[in-house]
Each structure stands twice: as structure tokens, then as C-alpha cells.
Amino acid sequence: MSRSPRAIYEDYVGRRKGILRALTTDIDRFWSQCDPQKENLCLYAYQDGTWACDLPAEEVPPEAPEPALGINFARDGMERKDWISLVAVHSDSWLLALAFYKGARLNRDERDELFGLINKLPTCYEVVSGRVKQTNGGPTTNAGGMKRPGGPGGPSRASARARADEGGASGDWEDGEGDPCPACGRLYRTDEFWIACDACDTWYCGRCAKMTEKKAAQMKHWRCGQCAGPQ
Fold first, then answer.
1. Beta-ladder partners of 194
2. How far apart are CA 6 and CA 141, in angstroms?
3. Residue 112, number of CB atoms within 10 A of its CB
4. Nearest to 197 by CA among 121, 130, 129
5. Which helix or strand (DSSP H or E) is residue 54 part of?
6. Would you state the pLDDT for residue 101?
């Protein structure tokens, strides 16, 4: 079955979210599961944003690209932050390999579109190593306040805001939901202000966007640093 660049990208985003969750908010649990005394382990991530530290697929060759094998063996032989960065690098390679495996039937323009979508997001390594740059610019009124409506695969921000104005369900997100802020890797919290880029629909926390809800209410549109740069 053929898949569009956008559908493959959404799969990539979900799996990337799982990798970042394992390497940031769930790092203590992930660390403990990567016992060097166990057999070869891999870090898997799934489209729904979950992750698992598990044995590799028994099928040879595997049905799809597999994550790096034996990540647990290096855990105690290096500094913790260096090991996390190493796992992140291997995970980035796996995410890209899987995305382009799924896009094997795309044509040249579609492959270019897929890479363009993926390349707008910082790599897992950039996030966990702190190398990602903070973005400049500020949010839009589409942010709708402290809570984070809509998002990839969900209702549009405009429709979510309209339903909230009408007294209906606003589609607000809960703590920890959604993709992490690409600038700092933090997960969403309901008591924080977040904003989405009007070009790529990527969400940023207000701190990284250097914007407040009050300032956002005075703006019609906002683009992140990636999308606001030279075209």
C-alpha cells in the first residue's frame, strides 16, 4: 500500500516522540531496563509515542529496519550523558532508515517533501545533547491560551478554538501529551503557554518562543525560526 509523505512523516513524529520520552522524562526507567547483564537489547518506539526496550526481531532479514542492537552493553562503560547521546544518534539513524523504507515507492519530489518535513525538526541527538538552538519569534492567537488544542492528526486549531468559544469540547491536551518542544525537548504541561507555527504546525513552549499569551493575542500569525528564515 502506497503512503503519502505526510503519513510517513506522522509515523516518524510519533516514533521520535517515543525516543525522546525514553531519553528524557523516562530516562531513569530506560536506564534500569538497559542492564548490561541482559541479552542484546534495542530501543523501539511506536507511532503512538510509546517506547520499549526489547530483544530484536527474530526474523532474518527483518521485515523493516531495526534499531541498533546491544545498546545495553555500552551503558556502564561510558559517562551517562555520553551513553544517552550515543543511543540518540543510533535512534536518529533508525528513524530515518524506517521513514525512507516506508517511502521506498515515493517519487523524487515526494522524497524531497518527506525529507523537508523531517528536517524541520531537531534530531533526537540535538535535543538530548542540548545542541539545539532556541528559536526567535513569537506565537499567534491560534495558540488559544495556556492549553494546547489540536495538534498533528487532531482537529485544527481554529476549529478547536471555535468549539471552545461555543462552550463545547476544546480538545485540550493533558500533561505530557504531544510532541516535545523541538527547542528544549520539554513535554507539554497544562500550566504552561505553548504556541504552534502557522507554517509547519510544530508546537513550541512559550519560553523557547520568547512569547507570552498576552503578546500572542496581539499577533495574527507566527512562524518558527525554521520557517521564518530565508525561503
1. 205
2. 25
3. 12
4. 121
5. strand 51-54
6. 95
Containing 8, the helix (H) or strand (E) segment is helix 5-23
* Closest alpha carbon to 141 in 227, 88, 215, 72: 215
The amino acid occupying position 156 is: S
13 neighbors 100 (Cβ within 8 angstroms): no
pLDDT tens, residue by residue, 143-162? 333 334 433 333 333 323 32
Percent of the chain predicted with pLDDT > 90:
48
Higher pLDDT, residue 153 or 227 = 227
First-last CA distance in the chain: 34
Which sign does the torsion angle of CA 15, 21, 24, 26 carry?
A: negative
Q: Which residues of 127-143 are buried (b: 16+ CB within 10 A; e: fewer)?
A: bbbeebeebebbbbbbb
- Taking CA atoms, 188 is separated from 72, 175, 192, in Å, by 29, 6, 7
Q: Give the cell for residue 93.
A: 539513524
Cβ neighbours for 92, distance < 8 A, ≥ 6 positions apart: 123, 124, 125
Q: Are 46 and 14 in contact (CB under 8 A)?
A: yes
**Residue 124, Cβ density class (10 Å: 0-12 exposed, 13-18 middle, ≥19 buried):** buried
Spatial distance between the Cα atoms of 231 and 226, rounded to a whole number of angstroms:
10
pLDDT in tens, 184-223: 877 777 778 888 888 777 888 888 888 888 888 888 888 8
**DSSP of 55-76:** PPPSSSS-SS--PPS-GGGGGG
Q: Which residue, 117, 131, 110, 118, is CA-closest to 184?
A: 131
